[in-house]
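Closing statement on the pyridoxal-5'-phosphate sub-project.
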Amino acid sequence: MKEFIMAQQNGRNIPSEDKIFGISRLANEMIEKKGKDAVTNATIGALLDDDGKLVVLSSVVEVLRNLTPEDYAEYAPIGGTADFKKSIKKAAFGKYMPNCFTEAVATPGGTGAIRNTIANYSKIGDQVLTSDWFWATYSSIAGEIGRSVTTYSLFDEAGNFNITAFERKVDELLSVQESLVIIINTPAHNPTGYSLTLQDWDNLLNTVKAVAAEDKKVTLFIDVAYIDFAGDPDKYREFLPKLENLQTNILPIIGYSSSKTFTLYGMRCGAMICMTPIKEIAEEFVRVCQFSARASWSNCTRASMVVLSKIYEDNTLLEKVNEERKHYCDLLLKRGKAFEEEASKVGLKIVPFDAGFFASIPCADPDGASKMLQEEGIFLVPLAKGLRVSVASIPEEKCRMLPGKILSVLNSMK
Ligand code: PLP
């Protein structure tokens, strides 16, 4: 890594280039040299249509186009406008509006919710827990504010959620820390596409309830960034009632993002929403999270808040948006299934997959495999434990083509 010249490292590990953007750049360079057909760029974390163009919901764009200048020029309140807070709760909970105190605080995308949760519910120096397959940004955010990420093994030998590893790690951390933030990314986990089953949820919650003694504080951050691209929206929200009215020292916080759901990636619109049986805990949540927001990004974009408010105050419009999203969700699900089916056909082992933007392949030398695949015009993201394929960014026929190619590269490395 380069020496710092003027800037301070402050314990962080800052690479010279973001890994994913770096590989995507190489893919674009190859497209310029060899043409589009020679390249498969499965690194991009956004939904692209079969021609490689960003999918943007036209029903959402129409609302944006009709905004008044004040809708986007004026500051929004730090925690979000009242209508926005109501709307984003409806978006997040769907038909499972909880029977407990819920408060929403606006954040710039799901990323802001992660940042504010770690900042307010862990201590400086604490370790934050997530699974060993995880979105690397969790670690960057934790490091940026003086915390770090530690992991448990997500799957056991049989490919099921590894409740034993989870329990061991929660126990270990709570024996040395007063508080613990646990990040659970489900459904349609990045990078594996795994979704916790209802049974997984019961096991997980029973473990946390048993291990979290009264003098400890556990924050369960549920990152649902991909919840609306996993499949049936009601089915994928069935776990939510399980989070209502847990013991008072366990606080669920839902990290909700409009980036994928409303294709508002660049508008930076999201929210953190707490669920608690105690009014004072909900009030404190608003106070501390708004304080953190003021001290980092201040307020979020009003335009995106107005867009969501307008969608949720008009049922016909909401239906239109939902229908349009369903069309693209179906397209994405087909791609994921095609990849999974073909992997099974050719005998490529993949990490247990359910749905969403990504699937992963375990391998011993992800960087080496990624480089070899690049020579064949295939660009995937190397992670610590394997390769990530974005099925969101490539058409179905490429999803079918990839498993065989990946398998032969992995076999050639043995
Ligand atoms: N969580 C996960 C796992 C993600 O992959 C992403 C986006 O890539 C996010 C949260 C939040 O994204 P945003 O800040 O754009 O809403």
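The domain at 19-57+319-412 is CATH 3.90.1150.10 (Aspartate Aminotransferase, domain 1). With this model delivered, the sub-project is considered complete and its resources will be redirected to Aim 3.
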